[in-house]
Amino acid sequence: MASELFLGAMSGTSLDGLDIALCDFSSTNILKASHFTPFPQELRQALFDLCHTDNIPLNDLYQTEQRYSRFCANAINAFLKQESINPSDLAALGLHGQTIRHEPNLSPAFTVQLGDWSLVAAETQITTIGDFRRKDVALGGQGAPLVPPFHKAIFSSTSSSRVIVNIGGISNVTILMPAAEPLGYDCGPGNALLDYWFARHHEGTFDTNGDWAKSGEINSTLLQRLLNDPFFMLPAPKSTGRELFNPEWLHSRLDDATVSLEPEEIQATLTELTAQSIAIAVKNHLNTGEVYVCGGGWKNQFLVERLKQALGESYTLASTEALGIHSDWVEACAFAWLAANTLHRQDSQQASTTGASRNAVLGGIYYP
Asked: Cα separation of 115 and 123, whole Å?
């Protein structure tokens, strides 16, 4: 009997490293094992530079892609060894790749994920599925988010409305209502600006528990200036990334009116921006419901407190762990699920959230 074990591997806009999840979708408890491998600082910086550089030398682009791909292959092989798994035990690997540019609203539109899937397949000896987003863009879609159909398959309820909130570098929401197609879109910055501002003022890469942000006062003038960006008023489908919510975007809004603010006040205000943009998205679709959070943002206790305050008493708030998958591994599981769909030639039901002209089998298959 053919294996139905799938690996999912995801590195997102937080640029922190690679999440790996081993999934069995024939089981009640689909997540069987997981691991996180952080990027070496040199690779992290190279990826960051590609995300924030308009004119990229080809050698820099493709050498970074090779370093990233070998990093992924090595991390996956180490995971297999740790878990005593033979590559032949696996049906396939779903590897998202690293997004360095996402421009679905340009003409022509495009999205770029670094990844040499042929190399990863050869180095791991696993059938590797990647390049998930470009088919959707080719069909007129945003190419993102791709995970709402997975959220529907795994987290939906026949009796209650639920919202799945992923807080990575960018935040996105999936609205799940009984007997309805999922609605999902990016709603604004997640951790990306918080991590940038923290690293600018401290040693380290993130604000543990949001403690630094919590020490500052939220500035309502700056908050409103940030929320006035036209992106927040756009209707769905919509997606975004570091192309918009980047250091340049932030500094262009830190003018003379905010020059006297302490750095921790700006961090507190950026935290509130993430919380408010999520809450606005939720309230645009549901007056009440269950809200479940996944992604690194769940570890930011101050952000979770602010989100709970912004949502109000009409909504419950919990981690996706309450629904069976720890918040750290939801996206990696989603790309294992997308890989399973592709391997079985099943479309991924993505058009209702991306705006594509039709559903499609996503990604390419690369054999060892």
From this structure: 13
The DSSP result for 175-196, as a single string, is EE-TTS--EEEEEEE-SHHHHH
Q: Read off the pLDDT of residues 154-209 as tens digits, 9 standing for 90 and up.
A: 999 999 999 999 999 999 999 999 989 999 999 999 999 999 999 999 998 899 99
The overall pTM is greater than 0.85: yes
Q: Looking at residue 242, what DSSP letter applies?
A: T
14 annotated to a ligand binding site: yes
DSSP letter, residue 23? E
Tell me: is residue 277 an annotated ligand-binding position.
Answer: no
Neighbouring residues of 94: CB distance < 8 A, sequence distance ≥ 6: 6, 7, 8, 9, 129, 130, 132, 335, 336, 337, 338, 339, 340, 342, 363
Annotated binding residue 5: no
Those residues whose C-beta lies under 8 Å from the C-beta of residue 343, and which sit 6 or more positions away, are 91, 92, 127, 129, 365
Per-residue pLDDT reduced to its tens digit, 211-247? 999 999 999 999 999 999 999 999 999 999 999 999 9
* Tens digit of each residue's pLDDT (9 = 90 or more) over 343-361: 999 999 999 999 999 999 9
24 is in an annotated binding site: no
- How many CA atoms within 13 Å lie on the side-chain side of 293? 27
84 is in an annotated binding site: no
